[in-house]
Design a protein that fits this description.
single chain, alpha+beta, Beta-lactamase, 2 domains, 8-stranded antiparallel sheet
Length: 433
């Protein structure tokens, strides 16, 4: 239906569930046959997600910090005061497009040097003020990867991301079988071929060709919270956390028509449209690729695939299994805790984290807590994201309370002996008389 309504020469889609591809289907014609999961399409800005993974690998190795100004690692650009994190999240205030003719339909050799991807006045907003999508920003990030790795962006991407994940049909150039890009006349069912230019310095923003099968592997990484071969779980979770309502770090926050909030990325280049999106709560992801400049609503189609599977084949929970072991001190912390009169539950998780969740409506401080080497725990997600939790003890070593970013959690609500800031009325709880 999407291919027919979108008047698209061909469409390929795939659905991922719980770490594996469960459905792939093609419609239309590519080279005289129906396309399949191995047919290449240009994926445009989905390339940005892979570029962001390369940058976060450098961060995880200690080669850079997200708060570093670009100038610290890539001197001489007009955008040197933009931070690495702001470039990843499109909050650096840079122009949306490079100067000159439409860069997606002209050869990259028209922009031979890095300075050529930025206009004379590179900033359209003060850095950090707001979200403003910037393709040149990702060209700068690609150059940053090249500078710190000592190789071309495409070579580094192949070695560090594509080869380990088995994305062998993804690369900067098309390899048969691949679709050709087309424009469809708005008022007649006729086609016009679109050029497929090498984007040169802009490659890290949108150069890649890929397949539904390969992008399904990327969806698995986004769903599973990482893959140690390419990027650790915490870094993938960080990518998918919204920095603004629209974007994380190389990952879009996509709001589906049914209200679902998905993470992934859309892509477009003349002749091609694409989307990869995941719903971690359902363990579902979907990929849609089409070879048309406009008309095919790949975002809606991707969201529909996720919705249909979620509604018609509800997720069956994994069988309950006991933990192989648990630290007795963590087990002693398990159970109810109270922030004032609000009840929360603290549970040890299988991965060594602690999970803090509200026991009834109105609790807004839920988070996961990651252990640190100094005995301090760090929140992951929610209000306490990045905040530290300390387990406070009395002189005998007994736990008195939890301090989570200065919020005190006690074993009973306003107990007379509880360590509550401001103290507790010695008369205790009472009626209205």
């Amino acid at each position: 239906m999407g291919q027919s309504r979108g008047r698209t020469p061909s469409v390929v889609a795939a659905v991922v569930r719980d770490g594996r591809v469960v459905w792939v289907e093609g419609r239309g014609d590519v080279g005289g046959g129906v396309p399949d999961g191995d047919t290449q399409y240009r994926i445009g800005s989905i390339t940005k997600t892979l570029t962001a993974m390369l940058v976060l690998r450098l961060r995880d190795e200690g080669r850079l910090d997200l708060d570093d100004p670009l100038e610290a690692h890539l001197p001489g650009t007009p955008a040197g005061r933009a931070t690495v994190g702001a470039l990843l999240g499109h909050t650096a205030g840079l122009a949306a497009e490079p100067p000159g003719p439409w860069w997606e339909r002209t050869p990259g050799v028209l922009r031979p040097d890095l300075a050529d991807v930025l206009p004379e006045t590179p900033y359209v907003f003060p850095p950090g003020r707001r979200f403003h999508y910037s393709n040149p920003g990702y060209a700068l990030l690609g150059a940053l990867v090249e500078k710190l790795r000592g190789g071309s962006w495409a070579e580094v991407l192949r070695a560090e991301i594509l080869a380990p994940l088995g994305m062998d049909r993804t690369g900067p150039d098309p390899v048969a079988p691949h679709a050709s890009g087309w424009a469809v006349h708005p008022w007649a069912d006729v086609l016009l071929p679109e050029p497929a230019e090498d984007l040169g310095r802009m490659a890290a923003a949108g150069q890649l060709w890929s397949t539904a099968a390969d992008l399904a592997r990327l969806a698995v990484v986004l769903l599973g919270g990482g893959d140690e071969r390419v990027l650790r779980r915490e870094s993938v979770e960080e990518m998918c956390e919204p920095r603004t309502p629209e974007y994380g770090l190389g990952v879009q926050i996509l709001r589906a028509p049914d209200g679902r909030v998905l993470t992934g990325h859309t892509g477009s280049l003349p002749g091609f449209l694409s989307t990869v999106a995941v719903d971690p709560a359902e363990g579902l992801g979907a990929v849609v690729l089409g070879n048309v400049t406009t008309g095919l609503d790949v975002g809606v189609l991707t969201a529909d695939l996720i919705r249909i599977v979620a509604e018609r084949e509800p997720r069956i929970p994994e069988p309950w299994r006991p933990l192989p072991s648990v630290d007795p001190e963590l087990l002693a912390l398990a159970g109810p805790w109270y922030w004032g009169p609000n009840p929360y539950l603290l549970r040890p998780a299988a991965d060594g984290h602690l999970e803090l969740s509200a026991l009834r409506g109105g609790g807004t401080r839920a988070t996961r807590l990651r252990p640190g080497p100094d005995g301090v725990w760090t929140g992951r997600g929610g209000y306490f994201d990045g905040e530290r939790m300390r387990i406070e003890r009395d002189a005998s070593g007994a736990v008195t309370h939890l301090d989570v970013g200065t919020f005190v959690f006690t074993r009973e609500p306003y107990g007379p002996a509880a360590s509550v800031p401001g103290g507790v009325d010695p008369a205790g709880w009472r009626g209205t008389d």
